[in-house]
Each structure stands twice: as structure tokens, then as C-alpha cells.
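Severity: low
Component: inverse-folding endpoint
Summary: output formatting inconsistent between runs
Steps to reproduce: submit the following C-alpha cells with default settings.
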């Protein structure tokens, strides 16, 4: 009788261990799914916030009064454009970096240490790898969030803009220049108009 009770107790203990293990696995899977959801939400917020910075910098540059175009010297310049007598704002506030939770951003430098764009300081690898807006298609190849550069397009930047190394690659932003059209003759493989055929012994003129 005692051996039967002992065996029953042993089975109960093993069953309890299995239940505990299953609960632990379920909690781990739930936690991983939660972390994935949170990270994807932060990615969406980073895309929105970064785009707000890019648009504000573009407005600041394009709205330069008078002579040569200028980029802002600080992100605070986007909150209050001192170049105008009346208050003009290009950005509602200096947003926090969703990936780090701080208002500190990496800066894409332009002429004279001005600011052409921003990027996250997070070195974490992105989960999002496709389906970016056209202006940010290059993000598909990014190895970290720091490679998501929200910057004024170099194609429209002033000549001689020599910022830090991060500004050397074409930054996503304004539309890029289109390639020159290919002549129809190159496509067809022959000239559009053939020269008049010469008659034997003639000068090329028709009689």
C-alpha cells in the first residue's frame, strides 16, 4: 500500500514539474512577444519623429530670408526661427529619441557645423527591414538605428557642404535628381533618320 502511495506521489511531483515548466515557457514566449511589440512601436515612432525633424530642417533651409540658404545651427532654432521679426516655428518641440528615451540626437553636419539632419544614437539592430516610405528606402540596409538618417537631401544641399562622415552618403529626404533620358536611337539600336542612299557612281543627290 505504501509503495502505491509513494508511486502516486512521485507521479504527482513529476506532473507538477511539467506544469511549472510549461508555465515558464508560456511566460517566456509572452515576454518575447511583448518586447517585439514594444520595439516595433518604437520603430514607428522613430520614423514619425525623424520625419518631423527632416521636414522642419527643410522648411528652415528653404525659408531662408534674403541671400544664401542656411541650415539651423541648433535644434532649438527649429522651435523659434530668429531670422524673422515675428515668431516662426518649424518644429513643435525637440522630440525624445524613442529608442534611447533621451532628447540627445546624433547630428548630420552641414556647412559651418550647421545641422542638416538627425539620427538615433541607438546601436540596436532594427527589426523593420522592408516597406519603408520612398524617402527612406535606404533604411532597408541599415545595421543599426543610428544608420536611419533623417536629413535634408544632399542633392539639394548647397555646393561645398562638407559635414561629418555621416553626411557623405546620400541622405534620404527630398526627391533625388532623375537620370538623363536615354536617346531613342540608343533604345532602337539604329539612328532615327537614315541618310539618303547614294546611287552607284552618283553624288548622293537624287535625280
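Observed output (run 2 of 3):
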Amino acid at each position: 500500500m505504501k509503495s502505491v502511495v509513494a508511486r502516486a506521489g512521485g507521479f504527482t511531483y513529476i506532473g507538477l514539474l511539467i506544469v511549472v515548466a510549461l508555465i515558464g515557457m508560456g511566460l517566456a514566449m509572452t515576454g518575447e512577444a511583448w518586447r517585439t511589440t514594444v520595439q516595433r512601436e518604437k520603430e514607428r515612432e522613430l520614423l514619425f519623429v525623424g520625419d518631423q525633424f527632416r521636414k522642419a530642417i527643410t522648411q528652415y533651409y528653404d525659408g531662408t530670408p534674403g541671400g544664401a540658404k542656411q541650415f539651423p545651427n541648433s535644434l532649438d532654432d527649429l522651435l523659434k526661427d530668429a531670422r524673422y521679426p515675428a515668431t516662426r516655428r518649424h518644429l513643435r518641440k525637440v522630440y525624445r529619441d524613442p529608442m534611447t528615451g533621451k532628447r540627445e540626437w546624433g547630428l548630420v553636419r552641414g556647412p559651418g557645423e550647421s545641422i542638416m539632419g538627425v539620427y538615433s544614437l541607438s546601436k540596436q539592430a532594427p527589426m523593420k527591414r522592408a516597406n519603408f516610405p520612398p524617402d527612406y528606402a535606404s533604411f532597408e540596409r541599415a545595421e543599426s538605428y543610428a544608420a536611419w538618417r533623417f536629413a535634408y537631401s544632399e542633392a539639394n544641399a548647397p555646393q561645398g557642404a562638407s559635414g561629418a562622415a555621416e553626411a557623405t552618403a546620400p541622405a534620404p529626404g527630398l526627391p533625388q535628381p532623375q537620370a538623363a533620358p536615354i536617346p531613342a536611337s540608343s533604345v532602337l539600336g539604329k539612328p532615327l533618320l537614315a541618310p539618303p542612299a547614294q546611287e552607284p557612281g552618283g553624288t548622293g543627290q537624287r535625280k
